[in-house]
Amino acid sequence: MLGWAAAYVVLVAAAFVVVLARREPTVVRGDYVFLLTALYVLVAAGVTTLRGGRFSLGVLAASVVVLLAGWLLRSRWWVVGAGPDVVAATIEECASRLCAPSERGTGECRVTVPGGALHLRIVPAGRSTMIVFVADAKHRKAHLFRRLLAKQYRAVTPTIRLGPSPQRD
Questions:
Q1: Is 113:66 a contact under the CB 8 Å cutoff?
Q2: Residues 101 and 149 in one domain
């Protein structure tokens, strides 16, 4: 199981280097970090079990701590390479594209959608900005807003497209 942990650390370090090396803003979504971490722990535990391996109490405790940390990060996104003012302007632009009223306050934004509102806290974090989704409405427009906001930045992993590549003029 320690080999799996070492491989996970190498993957995280490689992703960290890729994100810091980019010139354009990149988004690291906490919900995706949790999903990928949970899947990784599940695969590692499954393969170890199929091979007849045993889990020590320390490995189980470390797995729980890693999953709990990922769970706590679900509502946070890091936009590496963009300041808080740029991120707030991008949030307002995305809201206007969806015809959703937005209000900007000091260190926060509120986007109103049918049936509720999205409350976003915008926190500077060195070369990056953290977006904390404090409250999230359940309406489809709230989901569209999150998807549109994510598309404004590069993802950590490359986008995989199936099918023929688009024609360039």
A1: no
A2: yes
CATH number at residue 129: 3.30.310.80
Secondary-structure percent of the chain, ordered helix, strand, coil, rounded to 5: 50, 25, 30
Helical H runs in 22-157?
A: 30-50, 57-72, 84-97, 140-151
35-45 pLDDT tens trace: 888 888 888 88
- Cβ atoms within 10 Å, residue 18: 14
Task: Output the average pLDDT for the chain.
Answer: 84
Is the distance from CB of 39 to CB of 94 less than 8 angstroms?
A: no
Global pTM? 0.77
Distances (CA, A) of 62 to 2, 75, 145, 161: 11, 22, 35, 35
Report the candidate in 111, 80, 114 with the shortest Cα–Cα distance to residue 94. Answer: 111
pLDDT score of 33 more than 90: no
| Tally of domains within the chain | 2
* Bridge partners for 105 per DSSP: 108
Give the H/E segment covering residue 18.
helix 2-21
Burial grade of 94 (CB within 10 A; 0-12, 13-18, 19 or more) = buried
